[in-house]
């Protein structure tokens, strides 16, 4: 079914190759660099770089003089804009007006790793995507999944417009045990969890970035039962490379700094499957590319506690196909739900694995 849905669609690069308008990158930074390299590998000619008026300022980027959209249009005529930055919620709404004047396409390249979940990758791994689709527990999850694959294949933003796609399953919050928040940032997701649950035992919030950890402590000071830990989480204990990018740009696994790293199993006392550790009711994993390693370090906790798990699926290109099946492997009675926030490109996509006993 997946191959039949995706194969007839024109790929992003096929669309760009046939585009008569001047193709320009909209935005600068590491995202634009990745997209530029990806398009060059596919023999797509880039005519220029544009930015919003406040970011032009005579910048030179990738060998192009950065221009405003109006400047580029006056020189090149009608434009095909390739979006190279992220827009969340209402901030993305201006694209609808811009699309009336110019063609807009949005590549979904991974934040980490080299695997790109594009049309070729989807077709090559169609059987695996089919298994994930068949494992999803409700119609909304299946709609989100198919729409994401269509978007990844084509770069067409219209596929990201899915109503009520960001309502998590209530079962994730309904327990009286420990909640673990991995990648707690400044405490925003801790506050979100508390808004939906008043029966939890405590909340352990992990944040490896030192400056952000201070904000986490300040912002959760009045919340019951919060234990803030200035540590990364992975598949084993020790130290790990860390890149402090400031706020959400920080990530573990690479960089010039080091931070302490723990596994969920060791922290909660489930060093083997017969261990008597601290009961865990739910785990939220948003670990900036370390998500699979976090799961590997939590397998005993998952097996012993049958806890609900929420994990980000957008950091690496392969996550959307690998992480759902990895969780099902460690507890086959999970029901899987897919949810996404309003974001262009398809960031903030989360899988919720809910044990059937909770329903």
What's the architecture of the largest domain, going by CATH?
Answer: 3-Layer(aba) Sandwich
Radius of gyration: 21 Å
What's the CATH class of the largest domain, please? Answer: Alpha Beta
Number of H- or I-type helical stretches: 14
Shape: globular
- Give the helix level as a range of percent: 25-40%
Q: Going by CATH, what is the homologous superfamily of the largest domain?
A: Vaccinia Virus protein VP39
Number of domains: 2
**Distance from first to last alpha carbon:** 29 Å
CATH topology of the largest domain: Rossmann fold
- Strand portion, in percent? 15-25%
The structural class is alpha/beta
Strands across the major sheet, in which order? Answer: 10-9-8-15-16-19-17
The major β-sheet equals: 7 strands, mixed
What value does the average pLDDT take? 94
Description of the structure:
Helix 9 (188-196) links the parallel strand 8 and strand 9 (203-206). Helix 7 packs across helix 14. This protein is α/β, with parallel strands linked by helices and 359 residues long. It has a seven-stranded mixed β-sheet, with helices on both faces. A four-stranded parallel β-sheet has the order 2-1-5-7. A four-stranded mixed β-sheet has the order 11-14-12-13. It is globular. It has 14 helices and 19 strands. It folds into two domains: 2-160, 3-Layer(aba) Sandwich (Rossmann fold), CATH 3.40.50.20; 170-358, 3-Layer(aba) Sandwich (Rossmann fold).
């Amino acid at each position: 079914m997946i191959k039949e849905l995706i194969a007839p669609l024109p790929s992003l690069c096929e669309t760009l190759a046939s585009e008569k308008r001047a193709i320009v990158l909209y935005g600068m930074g590491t995202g634009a660099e990745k997209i530029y390299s990806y398009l060059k590998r596919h023999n797509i000619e880039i005519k220029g770089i544009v930015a919003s008026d406040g970011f032009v300022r005579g910048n030179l980027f990738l060998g192009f003089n950065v221009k405003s959209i109006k400047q580029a249009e006056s020189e090149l005529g009608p434009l095909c804009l390739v979006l190279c930055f992220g827009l969340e919620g209402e901030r993305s709404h201006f694209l609808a007006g811009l699309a009336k004047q110019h063609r807009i396409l949005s590549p979904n390249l991974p934040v980490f790793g080299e695997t790109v979940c594009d049309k070729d990758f989807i077709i090559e791994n169609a059987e695996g995507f089919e298994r994930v689709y068949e494992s999803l527990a409700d119609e909304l999850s299946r709609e989100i999944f198919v729409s994401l694959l269509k978007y990844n294949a084509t770069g067409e933003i219209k596929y990201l417009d899915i109503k009520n796609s960001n309502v998590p399953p209530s079962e994730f919050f309904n327990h009286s045990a420990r909640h673990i928040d991995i990648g707690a940032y400044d405490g925003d997701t801790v506050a979100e969890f508390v808004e939906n649950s008043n029966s939890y035992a405590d909340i352990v919030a992990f944040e490896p970035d030192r400056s952000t950890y201070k904000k986490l402590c300040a912002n959760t000071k009045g919340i019951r039962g919060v234990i803030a830990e200035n540590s990364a989480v992975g598949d084993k204990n020790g130290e790990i490379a860390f890149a402090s990018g400031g706020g959400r740009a920080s990530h573990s696994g690479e960089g010039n700094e080091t931070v302490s790293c723990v596994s969920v199993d060791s922290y909660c006392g489930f060093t083997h499957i017969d261990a008597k550790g601290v009961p865990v009711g739910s785990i939220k994993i948003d670990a900036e590319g370390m998500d699979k390693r976090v799961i590997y370090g939590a397998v005993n906790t998952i097996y012993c506690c049958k806890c609900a798990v929420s994990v980000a699926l957008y950091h690496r290109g392969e996550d959307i196909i690998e992480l759902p099946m990895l969780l099902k492997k460690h507890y086959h009675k999970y029901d899987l739900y897919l949810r996404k926030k309003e974001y262009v490109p398809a960031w903030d996509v989360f899988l919720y694995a809910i044990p059937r006993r909770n329903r």
